[in-house]
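idk why but the lab printer keeps eating my pages so im just putting this in chat instead. protein + flavin-adenine dinucleotide:
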Amino acid sequence: MRIEREVPFAGSFDLVVCGGGPSGIAAAVSASRLGLRTALIEKNHFFGGMGAGGYVVPLSGFFHQGIRVAGGIGWELVQRMLQDGAAQLELPKGHVSFHPEYLKLHAERLLREAGVTLFPDAVLSGCCREDGRITQVLFVQEDGEKAVGGTTFADATGSAVLCRFANAELLPEPEKYQPMSLCFLLEGADVTTPLLGGCIHHDGKTGRSVNAELHAWLAEQPDAPQFGGPWFNALIRGNLLAVNMTRAAGDAADPKVYAATYAGLREDAFRLVELLRKGFPEFRNAQIAAIAPDLGVRETRRMRGLYVLTGRELLDGAHFDDTIAFCAHPIDIHQADGNGQRLAELPAPGPIPLRCLQSANVENLLAAGRAISCDGEAFASLRVMATAFALGEAAGVAAWANGDAQRTRAQLQKQGAIV
Ligand SMILES: Cc1cc2nc3c(=O)[nH]c(=O)nc-3n(C[C@H](O)[C@H](O)[C@H](O)COP(=O)(O)OP(=O)(O)OC[C@H]3O[C@@H](n4cnc5c(N)ncnc54)[C@H](O)[C@@H]3O)c2cc1C
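predcted complex ->
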């Protein structure tokens, strides 16, 4: 069916960023600070992506073996949350625990201060292409569909939504994506005994952050639903914990799968908490305080770029002349159909070339964040939020530098993004 209609035009921009998670925030702020007329389209009415809407805590990937490898806009946000007492830097691993509401607060302040034109509550619904370039993107808000035009477009939706609308080449899908998890906030648990006290921070002093005792116990419960971890993260003050333990395989880019998985994992969250309440005195008074509004989506589609980064290259210490960011997080693969996790530390910070952000077949399309061009192993390191901020910042600067790698690198160094 072909429907022709007039769509109101909401403006013309130098850079249009689609998706307001870590990568989208950093892309929009960096471009706008450099003087580009920048728009940001986000389907939620807040910004922050998985960290804000998915209750994914902590921010990982700023540090490699105690040395900071990512700075710039992501680090600026961390400083703002630290000043508010709403974040905690956990050295030597360098994870940053934080309160999701403060991430929303400071992300929006940063975007407004930078002068970005914001389109919240706006779901990307299509795009127009001419001669191998995107000319406009379409989105739907409560009062109808709108279009914005642009010179460059950045896909920061996490799931390559704009790439799919633009018929950009995608990488082949794996047999199984990493699983989805629905995170939730838990109140009333006793964190003063070693059971939780020993694992709620990722400071490296208490061994692995996953709670091994609870993992072993849950694995023996015949009526336990599929789970991972569990990981408990303090939201700094009081004893409110962000909990990551539900788990389900599937393709989150399929709306039917997404909706069914959200409903199923909400059931699982209540069942898991009930099991813990019965099994451990520390959880006797615990109850779910809130369930994340967004499903935690680890992995979906990725764009094919001018280069496809591999996990092997990260492990072998590759070098690229057009490196625009470094990843620091281990290759971290969560088992889709079980409760396991495979981790491989990077021997050195992993370089990410600008070409991974540049579409192979759509001239003015950049990917930022977890949809960039890489294999599943490299993805399993670079998907964390500090790296997503760094990739977004690089995309914003690359738009300003018209894709020139050396100018992009020099500017990123100047603004402290590459440390
Ligand atoms: C369960 C789980 C645990 C994790 N644990 C950690 C951890 O401990 N530490 C860590 O650093 N990282 C962790 N991650 C990874 C990290 O959260 C993400 O990979 C990261 O947020 C990716 O950033 P992004 O900007 O690419 O995408 P996202 O954060 O996914 O942001 C994408 C944004 O685009 C918007 N969007 C999507 N589609 C549309 C559309 N059609 N129209 C408009 N807007 C749209 C979304 O609403 C969202 O705001 C975890 C992820 C999950 C799921």
